[in-house]
Amino acid sequence: QVQLVQSGAELKKPGASVRVSCKASGYTFITAYVHWVRQAPGQGLEWMGRFSPRSGGTNYTQKYQGRITMTRDTSSDTAYMELTGLTSDDTAMYFCARGFSGYGRYDVWGQGTLVSVSS
Amino acid sequence: DIQMTQSPSTLSASVGDRVTITCRASQNINSFLAWYQHKPGKAPKLLIYMASSLQTGVPSRFSGSESGTEFTLAISSLQADDFATYYCQQYTSFPPTFGQGTRVDLK
Fold this sequence. Notes:
- The complex is a heterodimer of chains A (119) and B (107).
- Chain A is an all-beta fold and 119 residues long.
- Chain A contains no helices and 11 strands.
- In chain A, strands 2, 4, 5, 6, 9, 10 and 11 form a 7-stranded mixed β-sheet that branches. Chain A has a 4-stranded antiparallel β-sheet with strand order 1-3-8-7, with no helix packed on it.
- In chain A, a hairpin with a 4-residue loop joins strand 7 and strand 8.
- Chain A is globular, with a radius of gyration of 13 Å.
- In chain B, strands 2, 4, 5, 6, 9, 10 and 11 form a 7-stranded mixed β-sheet that branches.
- Classes of the chains: A mainly beta (119), B mainly beta (107).
- The interface between A and B is medium-sized, with 21 and 26 residues.
C-alpha cells in the first residue's frame, strides 16, 4: 500500500544538525511533492517547505530559509529534510506528507519523527 | 501570508451530536481549503479538500462547505473515533497556512 516511513527519534544538542528521512513506497516517487510539516509541543501544525522529487526543486517558508535543506535519493525513493543550527525551539514532531496539488491536499503522511533538542 | 482563523478553539460534545467548526481566511483562497483530523501520536488525516470534496475512505458524516472566505467542517453525528483536533489549511498560495486547530472533546 501507499506509505511514507520516517526515520526514528533523534536527540540533539543545541547548535547541531538533524536529518530526517522519509521513504516512499506503493507509488511512483517522482510523481508527487514531499512536504514537511512540524508540530511543536502544545502547538499546531506548521508547514516548513516542499520538495519535488522529479526536479529536485524546493520551496521553503521564510522562517527556515538558510537552515533547511530538502533532498532526495531516487534510487531508494527517499526524501530527506535537514535542519541546522538547532535550538530548543526546534523540539517538535516532524512529518513528511505527499501532495499532488500544488501546496496542499496531503493524502498520505509519514508516522512522524520526534526531534528533541536539549543540552 | 494568508491567515486562517478557526473557531472555536475547543468544542465539547457528546456522541451523536452534530458539530461544526469554522475557518475564516484573511483573503480569497479560491476554494483551496483542506481539513485534517489529528490525534495524539498519530499522523494527521486528510478529510476534505477543495473545501467540500470528501477524501476517499472518509465517512460520509464529514462534510465541508464554504461561503466566501468562511469555511465549515460539519460532523453530522459525532462518533467515539472523532474526538481529535481538526485543522483547516489553505493551499491557494505560498506559503500554505494552517488554522490554529479545534480540539473536539467529550462533554
